[in-house]
Each structure stands twice: as C-alpha cells, then as structure tokens.
Amino acid sequence: MSPKAAAKPRRSRRSKKPGVTIADAIRLLTEEYGPFENEPRLDPAHELVFTILSQHTSDRNSERAFRNLMHTFGTLETVAEAEVADIEAAISGGGLARVKAPRIKDVLGRILDLNDGSLDLHFLAEMPMDEARAWLRQLPGIGPKSAGIILSFSLGMPAMAVDTHIFRVSQRLGIIGPKVNADKAHEVLEAAMPPEDVYPFHAAFITHGRQVCKAQRPRCGECVVNYGCPSRDEEAIQQAAANAAAEQPEPATHDAADADRPDGQAPGRRRRRQESPTAVPHTQVVKELQP
Question: Is 31 domain-assigned?
Fold first, then answer.
C-alpha cells in the first residue's frame, strides 16, 4: 500500500450491517415526527387515478390535477368514456399530462373490462394479498409501489409501498442490501416485519427521508437513528454534538430513548417536537368526494 493510500481516512460506510432494528427505528422516528394517523383515503379506483397523477410531481400539483379532473367530469365512469385530449386538458396543471392522460384512460378501461363493467375495486380486500397485488399489477403502468399504495392506504391491507425516500433510508440503515432493487425491496421489507408495522414503517421512513435523510445532503447530526446507521457521517455527528454543547453549557439529561441505544450514542441535538406531518397528502380531496 502506497503512503498516499495509507494516509486516506477510513470511511464509516465500509460496513452495511444494520445497528438498529426495524422496531427501534419505527419507535424512535415516530417519537421524533409522529404520531402518524392513518386517515381515510379515497376509494380504490379514485386512489388509483390519484396515484397516477402523483407520479413525478408534487403533492400540490397532483391534488390540483385530481380536483380539476373530478370537477370537469364528475365521475370516473365519465373519465373512462372521455377523449384523451379532454382528460389531458383537465389534468394539465399536474405535470406530464400527455403521459398520464392516456394511462388513466387505459387503466380505467382495463378495470371495466376485467371487472364486468364496474370500477368498484373493494373486492380486492377479500382476496389474499399476493392475488390482490397481482390483479392490480396487470393494469397498464401499475407497478409494485402503486399497487402497494392502493392496497395499504385505500383498503387497509398490510402491503408495502416503497418510494424513493423509503428505499434510500432502508439501504442507508442496512435494512436492505445494496444489490436489492426498488421492486425487490417491497417483498424484502414486507417480509421483514409483522403486518401491523407496515403502515408505521412507511409513514416514519418516508418522513425521515424527506426531512433528514435526504438524497444529496443527509443531516446525520440531526438523525435520531444515527447510532445504528452504517452509512452515518461521523464528522457531521461530532460537529452537531459540539454545536449543541456550545449552545447549552449545562449537561443535558438523556431520555429513555437515547439511553437504550446499543453504543450509548445520542444524536447531536435534543429532540425537537414538530407538528405531526400529515401522512396522507389529499385529506381535503377525500372530504370533497364524500356525499
């Protein structure tokens, strides 16, 4: 080994063995950001259309597009019969309307063909989850994430829906391996926890990915599970701890959640209570559609 190579500092990311259990991660992240309320969602067919509209755009844009779609056509049956150009015009404020308009029409048409002319998908809740997921996956453009959203949030089934934030946080914590792709992650994560933990896991991990464990600049010094993260930035954690010590000279007492961490590390700052994030971005839309 050359002197130059020997002088390079070792990175803490060399190991990917998780140092925090899924159960502890859910508990600590829920204490930090929660509680997470599983609020009422749309019925399965409306949820499916909303999910298509939410792809590659913001919550605000998808809400705007969905609201205008329903205001324009009134029912999904009318949407299914409409011209693609008219659907595109109705959802133009949501982004990628040229792609999403024909997809919505194709999906609704396929459901009508497969379901004896009905858009009511509540029958999926009576099926074994693998069969219900396979039924949805046969629809054009519906992958494991979209299928998981409909089954979990609309029908209350313990199906995993892995988005980019959940996938990133799970890999960084070592819960899934570096060779597991996004599609496989649904199966791996779903099998790694009891059914009752699927929704809390989804809500906690997606919130953590959005607020702290960001893609480009993860805020490791503010992370409540950094003690067990094999991808943590030690320098950032130490700097955060030093900043916290400078701001608060008197020693802070550790709470129970910090005390039971395996290596005794605590995050670089005391936990701050935040407003509970809304786990569902379209609660108002749900209320508008209710009779």
Answer: no
Q: At residue 154, what is the residue type?
A: S
Q: Report the CATH number that the domain containing residue 49 is assigned in CATH.
A: 1.10.340.30
- 80: domain range? 44-159
| Distance (Å, whole) CA 155 – CA 78 | 24
Taking Cα atoms as reference points, which of 204, 213, 189, 192 lies closest to residue 37?
204
Distance of CA 285 to the CA centre of its chain: 19
Q: Which amino acid is at 193?
A: M
Residues 223, 232 contacting (CB under 8 angstroms) = yes
pLDDT tens, residue by residue, 25-62: 999 999 999 888 877 678 999 999 999 999 888 888 99
Radius of gyration of the chain (CA): 22
CB atoms within 10 A of CB 59: 12
Spell out the residues 6+ positions from residue 173 whose beta carbon is closer than 8 angstroms to its own: 18, 20, 25, 225, 228, 229, 230, 231
If one counts the domains in the chain, the total is 1
pTM over 0.85: no
Between CA 240 and CA 267 the distance in angstroms is 8
CA 180 to chain centre: 17
Cα 145 to Cα 263: distance, rounded to the nearest angstrom: 35
Q: Nearest CA to 136 among 96, 250, 154, 32? A: 154
271 phi and psi angles, rounded to 5 deg:
-65, 135
Question: Cα separation of 39 and 213, whole Å?
Answer: 25
